[in-house]
């Protein structure tokens, strides 16, 4: 099926599903508990009028609001159990129940999560995005009209976050480099060598890569919706910097190791296109920095190690267990908390990290598959139980090995640099579905 034959109903899909975020930008996540069904439905009715559709993705207006609902939230709104049973079972269980599969153990286990994340109280998640803080607050003020005076809807958590003009996250790497092309979206992907993926990989109601259609029932609720998974991830920046300092022979080697661990130099330039040194101009060029493959040019990982972060998250055309196109997903990230001052190797006790969002139509074979089998295991590329060197759930026993001639290079044991603070599995309904939820009767 070619892209021109796919007719996505962009006017019914929330803009937050398909639109890349502006750079720079400010964002916020607001979580609500629904205590009164009628008030919850009124919130959906009002939200349907304030959510921007994907049809406006080419608009110069770079501010929008998205509304997502958890399974417990759909229950609180009165969606019948027969309908809930048609949703993905990972969504029905919720993130806390999926902790073991996701590697959320030890410090990352749900008993240590930031309240109320991971509890049955998380019902509705409102996300707002704007080019700056002033625009964000204006968007939040407008969105507040949807829940003001609804005493049965209680705001219970907020997380502000942002993206700098450099697009860097707290470990210093440029983020948000890789975005898939989706048939019918009209938005180009970041890898010009990758054919657009079927719309049904990301939006319910359309055919996916294997010809299937995910469609929670009733159709008016499921059609044009997507699953959205958000996670608050604390980054131990001091520990990461100290690890690189310990493992390296000097400053230049430190940057090389940082690149080998990620698969990109901190500027965003990939090792695949710039293996010997950083190339900031390449890293800043969205038309070039993600257009590469692995299978022919680097099958053994001597340039881009098979166990590095970006090759685990998206093996591209490399031979791995599972068809790569079945596990592609839309990732969005925004940092929270102030940066640790450059050069500091001591933790200052300030919470900082990344608000990570996954969007797709298959939470099991997309997000959970990648998280459990590619990020927290190494069997798929012949590395046993080795975990992702940056985001893996390390316990101090695992190592990262860099293919090297004449002898491979093994780095010191890895500690956990990223700790889960909480999150939830949500569903982003289409605009018609938001109105349907608002008009639900008992």
From TrEMBL:
PROSITE patterns membership: DYP_PEROXIDASE (PS51404)
The family this protein is said to belong to: Belongs to the DyP-type peroxidase family.
DyP dimeric alpha+beta barrel domain ranges (all copies): 27-140
Cofactor(s) in the UniProt record: heme b
Protein name in the entry: Peroxidase
One GO molecular-function entry: heme binding
InterPro entries assigned: Dimeric_a/b-barrel, DyP_N, Dyp_peroxidase
Alphabetized Pfam families for the sequence: DyP_N
Organism: Amycolatopsis taiwanensis
Keyword field: Iron, Metal-binding, Oxidoreductase, Peroxidase
GO cellular component: cytosol
């Amino acid at each position: 099926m070619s892209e021109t034959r796919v007719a996505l109903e962009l006017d019914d899909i929330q803009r937050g599903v398909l639109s890349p975020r502006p750079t720079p930008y400010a964002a916020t996540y607001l979580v609500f508990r629904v205590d009164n069904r009628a008030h919850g439905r009124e919130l959906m009715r009002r939200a349907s009028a304030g959510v921007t559709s994907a049809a406006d993705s080419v608009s110069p207006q770079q501010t929008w609001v998205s509304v997502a609902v958890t399974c417990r939230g759909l229950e609180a709104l009165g969606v019948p159990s027969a309908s809930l049973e048609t949703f993905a079972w990972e969504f029905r269980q919720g993130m806390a129940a999926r902790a073991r599969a996701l590697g959320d153990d030890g410090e990352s286990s749900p008993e240590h999560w930031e309240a109320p994340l991971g509890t049955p109280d998380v019902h509705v998640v409102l996300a707002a995005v704007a080019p700056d803080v002033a625009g964000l607050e204006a968007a939040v003020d407008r969105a507040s009209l949807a829940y003001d005076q609804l005493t049965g809807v209680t705001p219970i958590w907020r997380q502000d976050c942002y993206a700098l003009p450099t697009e860097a996250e707290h470990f210093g790497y440029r983020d948000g480099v890789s975005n898939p092309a989706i048939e019918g979206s009209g938005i180009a992907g970041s890898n010009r060598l990758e054919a657009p993926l079927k719309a049904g990989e990301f939006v319910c109601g359309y055919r996916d890569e294997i010809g299937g259609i995910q469609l929670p029932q009733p159709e008016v609720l499921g059609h044009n919706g997507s699953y959205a998974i958000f996670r608050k991830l604390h980054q131990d920046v001091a520990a990461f910097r100290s690890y690189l300092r310990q493992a390296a022979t000097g400053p230049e080697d430190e940057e090389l190791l940082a690149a080998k661990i990620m698969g990109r130099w901190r500027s965003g330039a990939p090792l695949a296109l710039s293996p010997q040194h950083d190339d900031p101009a390449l890293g800043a060029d969205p038309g070039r920095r993600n257009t590469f493959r692995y299978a022919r040019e680097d099958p053994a990982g001597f340039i881009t190690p098979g166990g590095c972060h970006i090759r685990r998250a998206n093996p591209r055309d490399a031979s791995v267990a599972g068809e790569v196109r079945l596990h592609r997903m839309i990732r969005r990230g925004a940092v929270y908390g102030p940066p640790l001052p450059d050069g500091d190797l001591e933790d200052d006790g300030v919470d900082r990290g990344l608000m990570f969002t996954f969007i797709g139509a298959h939470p099991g074979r997309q997000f959970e598959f990648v998280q459990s089998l590619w990020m927290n295991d190494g069997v798929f590329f012949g590395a046993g139980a080795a975990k992702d060197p940056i985001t893996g759930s390390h316990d101090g026993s695992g190592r990262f090995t860099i293919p090297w001639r004449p002898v491979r290079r093994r780095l010191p044991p890895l500690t956990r640099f990223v700790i889960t603070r909480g999150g939830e599995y949500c569903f982003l309904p289409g605009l018609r579905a938001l109105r349907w939820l608002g008009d639900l009767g008992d």
